[in-house]
């Protein structure tokens, strides 16, 4: 299939596909007239990249999954390198959640301090209850 068809089937753009190619994630064959030629394998690679990016993976982090598919595995996450990326990404998410927990705790403390400074917190009248 041509680049426009692959772009349409995957819901992306020809520009994005050319970028994937420039990054070494996609390898287009060439037809006799020089047009890029893609197959079902390429469709699978692009959908794998898109799925991973949708859950927060960088383009570079998708490489082991793409390589796993290229090696003939049925799924991109059936190789040790892919599992390692999952584990690394999960550790990053856990660290972010920890930091967010710290931020939340700080905000709660600041709010408590601010409320304690006010003898009679400002009250906004609700229409109909005055």
Q: Which structural class fits the helix and strand makeup?
A: mainly alpha
Order of strands side by side in the largest beta sheet?
1-2
Low-confidence stretches: none
Let me know the largest β-sheet.
2 strands, antiparallel
Report the average pLDDT across residues: 92
Relative helix content = 55-70%
What sort of overall outline do the alpha carbons produce when their principal axes are compared?
A: elongated
Order of SSEs: HHEEHHH
Strand content: under 5%
Q: How far is the first residue's CA from the last residue's CA? A: 70 Å
Strand runs, count: 2
Count of helices?
Answer: 5
The rounded Rg comes to: 25 Å
What does this structure look like?
Strands 1-2 form a two-stranded antiparallel ribbon. 59% of the residues lie in helices and 3% in strands. The chain has 130 residues and is mainly alpha-helical. It is built from five helices and two strands; from the N terminus they run ααββααα. The protein is elongated and about 80 Å long. α3 (40-54) runs antiparallel to α4.
